[in-house]
Amino acid sequence: MVYKFTNSEKLLKLATSLIPIGAQTFSKSITQFPLGVSPYFTKSARGSKLIDVDGNKYIDFCSALASVNLGYLDKDVVKSVTNQVKKGSIFSLSHEMEIELARKLSNIIPCCEMVKFGKNGSDVTSAAIRVARAYTKKNIVLVCGYHGWQDWYISSTSRNKGIPLEVRNLTKKFDYNNIESLENIFKQHKDDVACVIIEPMNKFFPKDNFLEKVKDITHKNGSLLIFDEMITGFRFKIGGASEYFRVTPDLATFGKSMANGYPISAICGKAKYMKMFEEVFFSFTFGGELVSMAAAIATINKIQKCNVIDEIANKGKKIREGVQKIIDKNNLHNHFSITGHPSWLFLDFKPNNGYSESEIKTLFLQEIFQCGIITLGTHNLMLAHSSKDINFLINAYKKVLPKIARVIDSKELTKHLKCAPIEMLFKVR
């Protein structure tokens, strides 16, 4: 079967006339899905399966950008959401469900003594930065990882148009697993670092007690430590990477998998810092929206009752082992590697023989979409992924990865591409 994308491309043409880049999220747009060989619009999804508007069926390993960890239309979440919709989603007064969810988070997240809710990751990471600056009376923010679209973070990337230089100068980047890079910034800005915000893990596991050292250096300099757990939360452990690695930050931010894809996020932390929200302004109409809270409560309950964290990790381990066997058997070490935590795995594309990472990744996407798999090189595992799904993925890789390597080695990649190569937004990991 040859997958065609006629309806997707018709909708894309219409979308780009009405919506910049034709999508609300860069990661769902032509910047990441190469034009001419990719689906763009979903018709429906259930469990681990997605159907596009052309009727093509896929096993989805993007999992809605890692926000779905149980599966699409999970029956327990749908039941909870449906019941709440019948009662109402937002009112003129607060609702006790806010207390219920806050209490639930305080019982499972190590640093959580108090909670405020948002809708997106950027809401709560930005709130954390504002609290840190207010508490420490300092200005500079040190970042490691991806932390959202707001000025304070995105100014440190190449996507910094529209942001004043004065704002850019207040954010400094350091390298993961390179404690010296953090120490050097503190030496340069010793008395004006408000906080360190870090994804506690992305592609690589921390080495040589890296997270403990980050916490120690941060506190010695009178700064706050913030864990951005948008993806690691409710995947690595029920209490996130801070529970998994046994390193407790001052503040932590969560979202995505907390509600199996419903729009809610949370900033949690020790009371002495969270009480700054009595002075720091963080307030918006839909902060107490109840449908997403109902989804979050149902999701957390299921994670706790059904051993979801371990189930997802075991599925990821099978993928990691399967991909590594393909790499070893076919001697593909110069072309690919598999990294990350089992619940959030990365297939890495290594520049080779004059071809860039972007060119190689574009050919990979072109081929893997035709196999009936949605991935951007990441494997965001969900409970709904079956053993059959994982075997299907591994069998597809057995065909696709050696083929790409042969094309690279023979210097014929451009000839095999049916589209223009994608361009990386900016390098984070």
Describe the protein.
By secondary structure, the protein is an alpha/beta fold. It has two domains: 6-61 and 308-416, Aspartate Aminotransferase, domain 1; 75-305, Type I PLP-dependent aspartate aminotransferase-like (Major domain) (Aspartate Aminotransferase, domain 2), CATH 3.40.640. It is 41% helix and 15% strand. The chain has 16 helices and 14 strands. The strands form three sheets. A seven-stranded mixed beta sheet has the order 4-10-9-8-7-5-6, with helices on both faces. The protein has a four-stranded mixed beta sheet with strand order 1-2-3-13. β1 and β2 form a beta hairpin. α4 (97-108) runs parallel beside α12 (290-305) and α14 (357-370) packs across α15 (387-409). The chain is globular, with a radius of gyration of 22 Å.
Features:
alpha/beta; Aspartate Aminotransferase, domain 1; seven-stranded mixed β-sheet; 429 residues; four-stranded mixed β-sheet; 2 domains; 14 strands; Aspartate Aminotransferase, domain 2
